[in-house]
Specification:
- The chain has one domain: Aminopeptidase (3-Layer(aba) Sandwich), CATH 3.40.630.30.
- It has a 7-stranded mixed sheet with strand order 1-2-3-4-5-7-6, sandwiched between helices.
- The protein is built from 4 helices and 7 strands; from the N terminus they run E-H-H-E-E-E-H-E-H-E-E.
- The longest helix has 16 residues.
- Helix 1 packs antiparallel against helix 2.
- The chain is globular, with a radius of gyration of 15 Å.
- By secondary structure, it is α+β, with helices and mostly antiparallel strands.
- It comes from Flavobacterium cerinum.
- InterPro entries: Acyl_CoA_acyltransferase, GNAT_dom.
- This is GNAT family N-acetyltransferase.
Length: 154
């Protein structure tokens, strides 16, 4: 397997929109498709695609808060057939390393759902808040944080 994580380019958008549709309704609420498109067009800061053998199978990024002290993991999504094969872990480790290179960041946060939060626990994230039905009915918000440098990174 030839794994490549690279910066997002606007010509990747149609493939990523297909990926999010493949994850609705299992991991994303239907309304989130338009939110993701808006993010790609107007709000991304650092965003990456995951390719295996030249095929885009996933993506995810991070944004910095205005005070530049927190990095927020954003919009992780993967082709359903590629989930559970280590690609999300590779992307998460990659992003943590990229965040550590920036300087000034003290905290990494992620807003996810009750379906995915155990994945982030493996990287040292701790649940700080749960809001039932936040994203949509049946899609709770789980807000998690961890310090920039964490023992699990070694």
């Amino acid at each position: 397997m030839n794994l490549n994580i690279r910066p997002y380019h606007s010509n990747d958008k149609s493939q990523l929109m297909t990926l999010i549709r493949l994850n609705i309704p299992d991991y994303f609420a239907p309304d989130e498709e338009a939110d993701f498109e808006e993010y790609l067009e107007h709000h991304l800061d650092y965003y990456f695609v995951v390719e295996v053998d030249g095929i885009i199978l996933g993506s995810g990024g991070f944004n910095r808060t205005e005070d530049l002290k927190t990095a927020k993991i954003s919009w992780d999504l993967f082709h359903p057939d590629s989930q559970g094969k280590g690609l999300g872990s590779a992307l998460t480790r990659f992003r943590i390393q990229e965040i550590q290179k920036l300087g000034g960041i003290q905290l990494i946060s992620v807003r996810t759902s009750q379906l995915v939060y155990p994945f982030y626990e493996k990287f040292g994230f701790e649940t700080k808040e749960i809001v039932k039905d936040f994203w949509d009915i049946g899609f709770d918000l789980v807000r998690m944080e961890r310090p920039l440098f964490h023992p699990v990174d070694k």
